[in-house]
Every structure is written in C-alpha cells, then in structure tokens.
Amino acid sequence: MKTWLNNAHVQSALASANLRLWRLKKHNPVLEKASDEILDTSQGRLLCRYTQADGTKRTGQLVVLLHGWEGSSESTYIQLLADTLYRQGVSVARLNFRDHGKTHHLNQGIFHSCRLDEVVDAVRLIQDRYKPKQLFLAGFSLGGNFAVRINSKADEKGISLRQVFAISPVVDPYEAMLAIEANGFYRRYFLRKWKRSLKRKEAIYPELFGNRSWRKHNSLDSLTRELVLQHTSFDSTREYYRGYELTEELLSCLQAETHVIIAEDDPIIPVKDFKRMKKKQNIRLLVLPTGGHCGFIVNWKGHSWIESYISKQLEKHR
C-alpha cells in the first residue's frame, strides 16, 4: 500500500527536516553533554563535538558521525542517530568538515571534497584521544563517501575500525552532480546553501576570493569549475571529481566491514553507480526499494530505519 512516505522527494526532504527534532525538544543529552574539541590535523583544524556515554551504560563503543555536504554536526539526521546511539550506551563524536557548521574561521583554505587527509587525521586523533575499545564510522551522502575512503586508508594511518556505515554515499561525483543539476529544486537548494557558506568564508577572509565573480554562477558545475581552478591544484573539474570517486581499486582495500545502504529511488545518487560494489570483499550492500536520499523514514513520527539498523549492528559487537 502506497503512502506519502513512499515518495522519494518527501523522504529526502524529511532527512534534514527540523520538524523531526521534536522528540529531542525536552531532553537532548548529546548536545547538552557535548564537549567541543578542535583537532589540529596535518592539513588544518576541524571541530569535533564529543559526547561520552553514560558511565553506567558504557560499552567502550565510539561512533564517529560524518554529515553530508553543507550539513553539520547539528544536522537532523546526525542528531537523531547520535541520540539513538547515546541512549544505547554508545559514545558519539560528531565531526564537522572544514567550513561546515560554524567553523569557517578555523582555516583559511576553502573546503573541497578531496581534502581527505585532514579528515583521516581527525579520526585518528579521536581514536588516540578517547581510546575506544571499538571504533565505528557512520556517514551520510558525502559523509558516507568520506567514511568509505577513510576505511581504505585505515591500515596505513593506524586507525582500527570495527565497522563502517555509509548511507546514500556519493560514488561517482560527476554523476551525482548531473543528477542534482537535472532537478531545479535540488540545484537551487544546494546552490543556495553553498553560496551562503562561501559568503561566510568571504566575510572572515575577504582576501580569499580576490573578486566576487563566484556569486554570478547559477549552476553547481560552473561554480565548482571556478573554485576548483582557483583554489586547488586540479586542472579540471573532471580530474577533481575523479579525486573523490569510490573507484574499484579503492573499494578493494577496505579494512573494516562496510554496510552501504541505498534506496532504489534516490533522486541524487544514481543506483546504477553501486554496481561496482557487488561481490566486493568487506562490503555489505543493502538496496532498499524506497528511502530517497538519506531518508528511510518509517513512520509519521519521523523515525528512520537507519537509526534502528545501526543500533542493532552495534549491539552484536558487545
């Protein structure tokens, strides 16, 4: 029986919708008990918001949560998953990528998706600082892409991961960009959020852009082109997109078991991109018929299947 929850666009919108935070209004221990840590990595400084599990329930498990592009540690889907895990007795570290949330002042250089080294370093610093018995990663969309790439570097960087969860991860960035550009609503949504972030960056570092030519762009592709050519060492956007693609080679060297969760009706990440993950060692690919992009909402109260699924997986490791 079809309901309004079967609509992919409704699912995608609800993933980030603030109205889903209603159940945290009276008590939000993850935010109330969080301590902010500035992590000095080899490439830059990143903000981590860490919440230690209740001592009476402590399991020694720690989950590092990675938000999506132009999201933050305060994004709805991050807060709700963090709350579910915390109430289960799991510590959570909500990591902000560069220039996400209110962190634009921490680094002069702008964020781009190939800044993997600083995120890998941040996860290693979190591991070394809090010394969990079991370390997990969970990322959404671009955060899911980062989670998989961190997993591929884990052995090299001395990170010991028990399990990784990638929800609606970006696999082929160029294909994802085309899918967003093809839909006027999503294009305007991401363009508006990206430009808002760039304006914050410009206000703090007015010398960074030289001029305001970036403001004139009305497509993600053209804005990406200008920023990539001006602020990275890449010679083209295609080279840049390939820089964070989840390639066959990368997917063949994952340290920890990786649960990749996708929906057939995802309007942003083409499901065909996930063919390369089939029969890969250490990848468990779960393809759900509905769920949109990072949604997987199961009832009118706004609960996501993702929250219960990850919670149950962690229970198995106690």
Walk me through the topology.
Layout: H1 8-16, H2 29-32, E1 35-40, E2 45-51, E3 61-66, H3 76-87, E4 91-95, H4 116-130, E5 134-140, H5 142-157, E6 163-167, H6 173-181, H7 184-204, H8 220-231, H9 237-243, H10 248-251, E7 257-263, E8 283-288, H11 305-315
Parallel strand pairs: 3-4, 3-5, 5-6, 6-7, 7-8
Antiparallel strand pairs: 1-2, 2-4
Explain how this protein is built:
The protein has 318 residues and is α/β, with parallel strands linked by helices. The chain has one domain (4-175, 247-315): Rossmann fold (3-Layer(aba) Sandwich). The chain is built from eleven helices and eight strands. It has helices at 8-16, 29-32, 76-87, 116-130, 142-157, 173-181, 184-204, 220-231, 237-243, 248-251, 305-315; strands spanning 35-40, 45-51, 61-66, 91-95, 134-140, 163-167, 257-263, 283-288. An eight-stranded mixed sheet has the order 1-2-4-3-5-6-7-8, sandwiched between helices. β5, α5 and β6 form a beta-alpha-beta unit. α3 packs parallel to α11 (305-315) and α4 crosses α5. The radius of gyration is 19 Å and the shape is globular. The mean pLDDT is 94.
